[in-house]
Specification:
GO terms for molecular function: transaminase activity. The chain is α/β, with parallel strands linked by helices and about 220 residues long. The chain has helices at about 5-10, 25-35, 55-60, 80-90, 105-120, 145-160, 185-190, 205-220; strands spanning about 15-20, 40, 65-70, 90-95, 135-140, 195. It has 2 domains: about 5-95, Type I PLP-dependent aspartate aminotransferase-like (Major domain) (Aspartate Aminotransferase, domain 2, 3-Layer(aba) Sandwich), CATH 3.40.640; about 105-220, Aspartate Aminotransferase, domain 1 (Alpha-Beta Complex). It is about 35% helix and about 15% strand.
Length: about 220
């Protein structure tokens, strides 16, 4: 059952608030709106890119009826802490898979991730807290914000590396869902994250090209303090 159906079957709608992640696609937010409820955005855990239970606790009100977590990039949201929070406050807690799973098996993607983890320098590789299926292999480009990451990405593409920015803007900056918010971990993730090729059939030479291109650039960018 989709998010809209889950909310509707639980009787959640007009007058209710549903806490959703601000980092990612707008589909979950749109499902909340279709159900008649009001989406409330919460910040993410910077390691998993999933909604942070502590940030959820900070935005709860007497109108909160549910929390929707999205498992992001193959990382799992902390459902145990979210379920505990839900039990304490009488909330529905629903975990949703990220749309658009990557092609290729999880073992193949993990092999690519292991290769990258051991060789990439100058970018921050993913943190794995629980079994990670690497639907996307997302690194952070340290620096002073979006211009550094975007310049890095443009240079990689010029070298034939098909990288992409996974989440360009927070959901609360999209025209249909605009709010006057500033969630620091979400903003930082939108500015720094870059998805490297890790799906389909990649040859060792292609993987080496990705690593060489990243390592040639990464040392030039220093973390912001």
């Amino acid at each position: 059952m989709g998010t809209s159906g889950t909310l509707e079957s639980a009787g959640i709608g007009i007058g209710d608030e549903v806490v959703v992640p601000a980092f990612g696609n707008a589909e979950v937010t749109e499902a909340v709106v279709r159900a008649g409820a009001a989406p409330v955005f919460a910040d993410i855990d910077p390691d998993t890119y999933c909604i942070d239970p502590a940030a959820v606790a900070d935005v709860l009100t007497s109108r909160t009826a549910a929390v929707i977590a999205v498992h992001r990039f193959g990382q799992q949201a902390d459902m145990a802490r979210l379920q505990e929070l839900g039990a304490r406050h009488g909330l529905l807690v629903h975990g949703a898979e990220e749309p658009g799973a990557a092609p290729g098996g999880a073992e193949q993607r993990r092999a690519y991730a292991t290769y990258y983890d051991g060789r990439l320098r100058g970018v921050m590789t993913p943190t794995e807290r629980a079994p990670h299926t690497y639907e996307q292999y997302v690194v952070r480009v340290p620096g002073n914000g979006r211009p550094d990451r975007d310049a890095f990405a443009r240079t990689l593409r010029a070298k034939g590396v098909a990288c992409r920015v996974p989440v360009p803007v927070p959901v609360y900056r999209m025209p249909a869902h605009r709010r006057d918010l500033l969630l620091p971990q979400t903003e930082r993730a939108c500015d720094e994250t870059l998805a490297l090729p890790a799906a389909g059939s990649l040859t060792r030479r292609e993987l080496q090209r990705v690593v060489s291109a990243c390592n040639a650039l990464g040392g030039l960018l220093q973390p912001a303090f």
